[in-house]
């Protein structure tokens, strides 16, 4: 509780004046809250909500003409909801039918192309159906002997010896 309310522990436990002060202070707080003096949310219990709802319902006049109008509006709203649901179902069925037709058309075309291809393959003969052969390119065979200078003949920009590649040039510098 807040600081300005006296607690029973500070006074004697059976003190009637302390209880009166506590309850009067709480009544004061309740009065301030209900009059708008205190800032805070107003809390409703289930019973208070039900009472407020009943009061609002009773506040509207329940004349027979009003009841008839409300029942007509409600039945019209229900009928419109039913119609919307019916149209949505019909649209869904039409959409499914169109997809089914497209699938069947695609399958028919696939079968037709397979038949045409088989006729073409029969006309071309059995060689048409051979699998593709992988042909590896032929690489030049490099000779490992030191006498073959044909492979190494390159003329580089910085080379003084036209017959030596840059790698051979390094080898020659190490020997010199």
UniProtKB/TrEMBL annotation:
Chain intervals for the UniProt region annotation (Disordered): 73-101, 152-176
Species this chain originates from: Acropora cervicornis (Staghorn coral)
Source superkingdom: Eukaryota
Compositionally biased region (Polar residues): 159-168
Descriptive protein name: Uncharacterized protein
